[in-house]
Amino acid sequence: MSATPVNSPVRVAVASFIGTAIEFFDFYVFATAAALVIGPTFFPKDSAAAQTLYAFLTFGIAFLARPLGSALFGHFGDRIGRKSTLVASLLVMGISTTLIGLLPGYDRIGTLAPVLLCLLRFGQGIGLGGEWGGAALLATENAPAGRRGWYGMFPQIGPSVGFLCANGLFFGLATLLSDEEFKSWGWRIPFLLSAVLVLVGLYVRLKLQESSVFTETLKNQQQVSMPLVEVITRHWRTVLQGSFAMVVCYALFYISTVFSLSYGVKSLHYSKPEFLALLCLAVVFMGLATPLSAWASDRWGRRPVLLFGAALALLSGFSMQPLLGGGSHVSVALFLIIELFLMGFTFGPMGALLPELFPTQVRYTGASLSYNIGGIIGASIAPLIAQMLVEQGGLSWVGYYVSVAAALSMMAVWSMRETRSISL
Length: 424
Prior knowledge:
Blueprint: H1 9-36, H2 38-42, H3 48-79, H4 82-102, H5 106-109, H6 112-141, H7 148-151, H8 153-176, H9 179-186, H10 188-205, H11 212-219, H12 227-234, H13 236-266, H14 272-300, H15 302-316, H16 320-324, H17 329-347, H18 350-356, H19 363-380, H20 382-392, H21 395-414
Helix pairs in contact: 1-3, 1-4, 1-6, 1-8, 1-10, 1-13, 3-4, 3-6, 3-19, 3-20, 4-6, 4-10, 6-8, 6-19, 8-14, 13-14, 13-17, 13-19, 13-20, 13-21, 14-15, 14-17, 15-17, 15-21, 20-21
């Protein structure tokens, strides 16, 4: 009998990284557009403030869809395999993103525009809901002994690269085009580019083999008939722990990017290219922090690294008013660097931690649900709440919001067992 084909470490790293980079590129393209053009393009021109709130509400819809994507793709990922499920999630995200780039605005089709936009944004959420869990399992289930944190880092570095590409592209368009050209058609280019990127991702993923861990489960017919029911009835405490552990990552990221971009352009009067350039600089530090914390989690454990990062994030909330509110290029850049570095630091070990919390039969569903429910709690309405807080109480209140999110994650991680040495 021939041996089961095994994925090479390089192929695993590339496939888990490139898929999440493309999916998060798609997701962040909308996040950046929500801060810049979604409101005026797809909603009635009642007031600029109302358009901003509508745009942020539309942004949040995808986070509500992500747990549904986790349940849907998690079911098939735990029943029939990681590979085919990852391919399907990539297609759903890519098609939804491309269609947003083709969608007419409110001026052309009226109320149908925001309705269709919300449906496509929902599709983005469904696709991303199935993406991360599969990519994390691909990395960790194929990782060498003692290096799950490091291999689990590759899907975690995807968001940094996806965000950098999305914001870098918007920066280039905002620089090369006039404001009128950018608002009229330029913003659509990143959405349409998704179609090309998805083809690249599909090529890489179709060459993968199933992990030996899941292949053994199939061979022994150990799958459960309803993974979601199994997770909810037998692992609900673990899902809550994982979800709240993720809250700080989401709050740091979306307050620092979506809210801060909108605030910087509209209240601090930065030009779009100026603020996007600062974000591109800051996200490099997020990308550096991610492998650092993943490596540290293999050496010292997931819990101490995450507790340390969350404690620093709690303190960082108090820097928002003096740094972002200071308005200078130096203070704003420093604020963005601090917040996104801490986001990367708290995010890095999650690629290993969440899969380690669940048994093989429900690992895709459990890890995905934890990751995406954390998104609902920490990110879905974070820009909206931040916008309301800054209007009612000022930037200090937005900083307190970040600190509370960090405190919730600290408590969740504190309640967990250490998972670094467990067997998958």
